[in-house]
Amino acid sequence: MIYKYFGPPGTGKTHKLISKAKAYIRIGTPLDKVGYFAFTKKAAKVAKKRMSIDSDKLDYFRTIHSFAYQQLNLTNDKVMQPQDYVNIGKELNIKVKWYDKYNKEEIFYLNIESPYFKMIGRAMNRDITIREEYDRNEHNRKEIKWHILNNLDQNLKEYKRIKNKLDFNDMIKELIKKEDLPKFKVIFIDEAQDLSPLQWKLFDKLKKQADHIYLAGDDDQAIFAWAGADVNRFIEEPGKERVLKYSKRVSKAVQEQSELALEKIRGLRRQKDYYSRNYQGESLYINNLDQINLMDGKWLILTRTIHRLVNMTKELKKRNLYYQTNRDKSFSVRLYNASVNYNSWCRKKILDEKELKDIEEYIGAPQKEWNSNVEWFEAFQNAPLLEREYIKNMIDNNENLDEPARIWLSTIHAAKGGEEDNVIICLDLGFKIKKSIKKSDDKNDEEHRVWYVGSTRARNNLYRLKANKKSNEYKF
């Protein structure tokens, strides 16, 4: 029997799965007969923690790829890493970048910034040939040429064969071929709307041997179609359905605003009526950051593109605001720590060799020439002036730089699953996105879902920041 939970933002679909898993264990279901598959490593760890059982005993609480890694007895040296793709790109004169190492953002899909590798990965996720993927005509014809794509695809396969390495999709393919997979009494799959056709193929094999399966997800939050996810399969999968109706996250204003994006979806969608928190909140359109007080409270600033995110970092720095991204804090932590240690040295505290060396590098003179009557800002002449000013101004504004920042900056995709009291969502679409959504209704629908996900990260208040160019703005 298959049970499906449709969970709008904050309605507790993961909580529902965990409650069901605990119920099965209470009635005597062996732990090795319970399979729980999450979309991210972080989510799998959270699920284990919520079970209130020794995590070592929950061997099948994993991501799907971790499950494949385990079942295939792989080691890290047998798995493709970002540098492997860079190496291949260099050989073929194809530019390759990556923003994060494997699973820094902890998602199924490797974050390689190359339209060619993305298309190859998408074809594998969709379980189709590279030619079939190319002929879907969803790509930018100026970016991708067939002869280059085909050559890269062949070279990638040969590279993996010679190096005896698998990528994430290869793992799933090999696992599907395996005959002796664990037989589960019950299987739980969270964020099922983000499964790709290849992963659904593995699901079809596992479900044949399971008594009960619980799928939880929200088709309105399916934003990984760019990587091959198949939201329609989740919607259409037969099962006993239930919509979770009470959100513990979004305010009334946020709910009303976010649903404007859903009204634009033309394709297949499961209608879901749910109740917001009993809190009004606000949703406002703003022209610039000066219209809100970022000096108080906790904030999440979301952008649709990396380019807009980079520009936003500059805006925040100009305002001497302390923020964080997936990469790190907004300032040089090494310089800040050196300034703190220098102040301690001025108070006669004994420092270790590394601390002294860092200070010496920034001052540009040996310790015997240091002057304890000179403030660090003046003493650190070898440190960039703008960085010194930025750190000093934040300290003067009473920001605690030792603590996590009150302001978090992220793309919408990287923030999926996150939430904050106040959210600023930058409405800039970006030229490539504008062009891609004209190709099909499916692309349009996915874009509306992206903005729905972004807006529902807000617990209390949502601020829609106008685009730099009106013509490039998402119309809420």
Description:
- The chain is α/β, with parallel strands linked by helices.
- It has four domains: 144 residues, P-loop containing nucleotide triphosphate hydrolases (Rossmann fold); 86 residues, no CATH class; 146 residues, Rossmann fold; 64 residues, no CATH class.
- It contains 18 helices and 14 strands.
- The strands form three sheets. Strands 3-2-6-7-1-8 form a six-stranded parallel β-sheet.
- The longest helix has 18 residues.
- It is globular.
Widest sheet: strand ordering: 3-2-6-7-1-8
Write down the overall mean pLDDT.
93
Global shape: globular
Low-confidence stretches: 100-108
Q: Can you summarize the main beta sheet?
A: 6 strands, parallel
Supply the number of structural domains: 4
CATH topology of the largest domain: Rossmann fold
Architecture (CATH level 2) name of the largest domain: 3-Layer(aba) Sandwich
CATH superfamily of the largest domain: P-loop containing nucleotide triphosphate hydrolases
First-residue to last-residue Cα separation: 40 Å
